[in-house]
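User: Could you write out the 3D structure of this protein bound to zinc ion? I've included everything you need below.
Assistant: Certainly. Input first, then the structure.
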Amino acid sequence: MFETVIGLEVHVQLNTKTKLFCACPTSFAHHQNSNTCPTCLALPGALPVVNKEAAIKAMRLGYAINGIVNHSSNFDRKSYFYPDSPSAYQITQLHKAIVQKGEVFIDLKDGTTKRIGMTQAHLEADAGKNIHDGDVSKVDLNRAGTPLLEIVSDPDMRSADEAVAYLKKLHSTVRYLDISNANMQEGSFRCDVNVSIRPKGQKEFGTRVEIKNINSFKFVADAIAYEVQRQTEAYEDGVYESEVYQETRLWNVEKGETKSMRGKEEAADYRYFPDPDLRPLVVTDEMIEEAKNMPELPDAKVKRYIEELGLKKYDALVLCATKELAYYFENMLKSGASAKNSVSWLNNELLGRLNKSEFNITNSPVSASKLGELVSKIDNGEINGKGAKDILDVLMSEDSDIDTLIDKMGLKQVNDDGAILAIIDEILANNPDKVEQYKGGKDKLFGFFVGQTMKASKGSANPQKVNELLKEKLG
Ligand code: ADP
Ligand code: MG
Ligand code: ZN
């Protein structure tokens, strides 16, 4: 039996206005090579100046994961040549990163929580892009010098599920912190997966393989499954030493396999040395204050939803998984809806309808305050669930006033005992045989009477009242 060991390196593109060491804008929408200057083109003599906004955003992550935020950190040069990096080195932080240590908690499918230790998070400059076009290759340096935060975990994960849970948690956290758009398709949240196996009970780690730049949660899970199987087979076939060695592999989506890309370089191969152009990054009290100013994070939110709003843990986790859903829910509460009904109307009714449409929670045709208003009318008995569903169906395609819809569609719930009793009396009078059978012990018929009463009221009778009054009447 083998145990899987996984450690993840995530590159998060920080959403700063300008690049890490120059004043060029970080947006890529412009014409190729137009967002460049002597510094990010690495022209001789141009000097880097570190971006304060990038430092604050890195620090914010540091505080969010309970890490050590170093008040002084250093930049190093990692030497390598590639056409998209005109300086022939990358500025990164090897020896003393801005954030060290820390922890992320993940919720597992069996309901337990697991702590994943963090190694560090460091600032580094992204490279440009090589664009291959037939037999011509072009270089676009608009991205060169864009700030990345590389977030490195300890090798604490033991399955693909844990790795995906960790990634989702980190993704959600950087989105809550608003330090990155974290768009996986666009590459602003990229992940390198390190995987090894070892016989259960063995203390030493096995040889790790790094799978680079995976851009979806599903591909991460697939790549791990493939790699675990490849390494396990090599072990069982007695060729582990020769087949599994420290290397960089790529995930081939079409073939569903990892492929060797290059042997893994050791740190020494990169000739790291302190960047002589950059002094230590020293943070000020003002930067610390700004970095600590952050919204409520998912762990605290889940706890509050459970303890103060009385939600089930599962529901709280679903709602807090993305800030968009959590903020939608909180806006429903602000318009007076109860927490309990808001959960089901958001998670089941609205999300169900959104999934079937071209919309999602960020551009929902029904606003949070509108759905909150609808739910508060269920809360106070003005309409029943069936009526509210009909109204929500209408709201999905037109933004109408809810009171007007209730009138127009005749959905005002009848709560008045007298009115409901009048209907019940009529139903019982019209079905004397069924009443006899019920009294003779055919309990199942109760549902028939409820159904007939609801139908006669065109769905407007308060179902709970109907039940109570029928029970009284039939004895
Ligand atoms: P490099 O920069 O060479 O990729 P790092 O030390 O920055 O190396 O990153 C190593 C990553 O690999 C970390 O996320 C770490 O948790 C993980 N890792 C280290 N050893 C193992 C191992 N034996 N199995 C799986 N993951 C590992
Ligand atoms: Mg690395
Ligand atoms: Zn520039």
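The chain has a mean pLDDT of 95.
User: Perfect, thank you.
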